[in-house]
Prior knowledge:
Elements: H1 11-21, H2 29-40, H3 44-51, H4 58-65, H5 72-75, H6 83-96
Amino acid sequence: MNKTNILRFNPIQIAEWMEDMLPRNVTSKDRAIVTLIKYLGISRTRAIQFLNLMRIPEDLRGRLKEMGGVTEGGLRRVVQMDSGEMRIVVGGMVGRG
């Protein structure tokens, strides 16, 4: 039996989709997130975990999207870094990916 999930998406793709799905016609980002989580049926915490990945600079997100085996949980520490540290860590990830 093949255990590969063909519907597994890269977390950067999910974050970008969610960012695109945020309603633009609301007064605050918080309200937009509430609307999004109701639509998707996920928790606020889970939505924010993905949306935090949008803190990673666009060029680095592009590199991460091309990698297999990247997980949202594995990137949580990266979003807490400054952009210089992110570049070093993501460069290392891409180098061994």
